[in-house]
Amino acid sequence: MPLWERPQYLIDRLPQALLAPDLQMMRVNIAQRAWNRDPKAFMEKFVPMFLNGLNRNSLDKKESQ
Asked: Range of 40's domain?
């Protein structure tokens, strides 16, 4: 694939790849395994990381307005 076609290819394919149902199911399965292994560590690590991502996205939206 020529170099000049690669960005358009990524723009077209990336949303499909990120939202693919099998990939989403794999993410859920990984989260379930982590929860089953150690619920306390899961809550201490994942929840703050998730909330920081939400806060960062809301801050980015406020700054762009």
From this structure: 3-64
Whether the pLDDT of residue 45 is over 70: the answer is yes
Considering the entire predicted model, what is its pTM? 0.54
d(CA 17, CA 1): 19
Residue 41's alpha-carbon distances to 2, 4, 22, 52, 53, in angstroms, are 46, 45, 26, 17, 18
Tally of domains in the chain: 1
With beta carbons less than 8 A apart as the criterion, state whether 23 and 17 touch.
yes
CA distance 56 to 17: 23
The values of phi and psi at residue 19, to 5°, are: -105, 10
Q: Which of the four pLDDT bands, split at 50, 70 and 90, describes residue 65?
A: low
* Separate counts of helices (H) and strands (E) for the chain: 3, 0
